[in-house]
Amino acid sequence: MPLVTIGLPVYNAEKYLDKAILSVLSQTYQNWELIIVDDGSSDRSLDIAQSYRDPRIIIHSDGHNKKLPARLNEIVQLAKGQFVARMDADDIIAPDRIEKQVSYLLNNDETDLVSTGLCSMNDNEQVLGVRIYQNKPLSVDDVLLGHSGIVHAAVLARKSWFERHPYSTDYPLAEDYELWARAAVDCDLKYHLIEEPLYYYREDSSISLSKLMVAYTSQASVIKNLGYRGERMLPLHYYFYIKKCVAKAMHTLRLEKFLLTIRRMNGVAPDMKTKIENNIKQVIANP
Q1: Which of 150, 151, 120 is nearest to 264 (CA)?
Q2: Does residue 148 contact residue 141 with C-beta atoms inside 8 Å?
Q3: What end-to-end distance do the CA atoms of the chain give, in Å?
Q4: Structural domain containing residue 219
Q5: What is the tally of structural domains in the chain?
Q6: Which helix H or strand E contains 82, and what residues bound it?
Q7: What whole-number distance in Å separates Cα of residue 199 and Cα of residue 189?
Q8: What is the mean pLDDT of residues 238-258?
């Protein structure tokens, strides 16, 4: 059972941080260290993190707001584990998430990174829908078009892979996309998708289309700076400019809720919904 480092960057997450930490404590795979890095929070997040006395929980705080990519690189540098897992401070992970991801990597030496499907939930932990991505071979063009299916916060990878591919701090709201794109162009994105919703993602009642447009602009810049044109007739970076125009039009027409509905198109089978709800109850009840 190799050591797994679970990285948890925190910024003003006092409302949900307890449940995120409890979901780590509830893991069936128990050989982990949880590195909580506070990114200059101004609320009670740091106090909440420090209230846990488990020796596996390690807290770092320097009072600065360095933003997510810098903090993720910091977590990799601090990690003692052979594997490094991601999660966000307002989400919950299924009890068997780490166990299943580690098991796959231990049995598949050619794979460096494992992601999972996700369950969308609201602020009250009510299940809204699931998104499960099919594990199938994809071309570099597919990855650069954003079709990888990798859920950033649900990733568990070999530490050596993260060390080969540190996060760039140059692309606001697209640091994960830049990482997958750069690794794919370098022929070093060997990943697997577990087709189960093992990550419970807290999805707000609306989507910030302004942030979405910043992300699309950043994604277009990533492709241009990589110097990769792809095999398609239209240069790849234009696809994101087109998506930006569509997002802007939806914002003008006040269609944010429609966009959110599209993201939750996949319903939840009754047995799967019951399992997820029971997992969430188990996490919240963890003493």
Answers
A1: 120
A2: no
A3: 25
A4: 209-261
A5: 2
A6: none
A7: 21
A8: 71
